[in-house]
Design a protein that fits this description.
With about 400 residues, the chain is α/β, with parallel strands linked by helices. About 40% of the residues lie in helices and about 15% in strands. The strands form 3 sheets. Strands 3-2-4-5-6-13 form a 6-stranded parallel sheet, sandwiched between helices. Strands 8-7-9-10-11 form a 5-stranded parallel sheet, with helices on both faces. The chain has a two-stranded antiparallel sheet with strand order 1-12. Helix 6 links the parallel strand 4 and strand 5. The longest helix has 19 residues. It is globular.
Amino acid sequence: MVGALALITLAGCTTDPNVTAPTDDAATEEAVEWFDQELYDKQDAERGVTPEGPEDQPWLQYINAEFVDTSQYASEGAKKACFANASISNPWRQTGWITMNEQLKVLQEQGVISEMETRDAQDSDDTQIADIDYFINEGDCDVFVISPNSTAAMTPAVERACDTGKPVIVFDRGVQTDCPTTFIHPIGGFAWGIDTAEFLIDELDEGAKVVALRILPGVDVLEQRWAAAEKLFDEAGIEAVDYFTGADPTEIKKIISDELAKGDVHGVWMDAGDGAVAAIEAFEDAGVDYPVMTGEDEMSFLRKWKETGLTGLAPVYSNFQWRTPLLAIQKIFAGEEVPKEWVLPQSPITAGEVDEFLEANDGMPDGHYAKFGGEDLPGYPQVWQDRVIP
């Protein structure tokens, strides 16, 4: 369990335009360092498991769960939640944050949560450590919710929260301890890498060239996505070259243009959807055929995919997970069992589903994520359309 928790760290498309791209050799070394066969096999198997739980509420579903007893926390009355958030610095996290706040309103009306005091670390380990310690010292938190900025650095602070005897819910990114009451996350980065690489391999011939666009190094889930994909490309005889882009559209266009100047590019693989449209536009600018491509369930990619008719896949790192921690609070204070490791479903959007998700998300901004899972919440669709960050 601890090994699995330590290796599942970042969700979504966190970006840092100041990242310096390493050399090709450095990138290869990182892929080797981040590959974990046991976790790869675990996530590969979980892709084929039918989740348990409510069929129409994927944010409450779970895969291969081992449940823990929470009867010690059972009590009546509205509870104060204290949320230490890594950031809302990119569209994926902003979409989730909006959804989380709409879920909060429902639980406040039901008398489950009195308030959720939130501190935003703005992508800083030091700030988030101070935020968690502030909540601990404040002394009036009934439950801690933590979306860690990074794995190792945040582990001692999470353990201090656990030491208070209050329930601790970690979601989205992991830490190197199993002390939290529950750890909530989609299947993981290796699953994403397997989904995307297998799709490209099936659509391309042996010897085809794929350009892999990666946003930044050193983030577990992103590294795992590429480690899985690189393994499968190598085994299938696909020529894959990878670059770090910082999700900068100008850099993405330059990389694709330079590769096209060297010869044909048959596929594009991305570890997050940021910049997918820029990559496609580079092919248009060069006047060449569209590649086979994987992006993400961000609306900008889905719309460009539909417009161009290219052969594509939209992998998903389920954004609806932002609802689950608050619903876990409801269960915990009701004394209900919850999964110790709460693995949520993570299913890509295929070509046959694009129209369905475009229609369902009509009117949503480009930075919105199609599988956000907030359609039944009271603010739908207006608050997501307005994109006002609480």
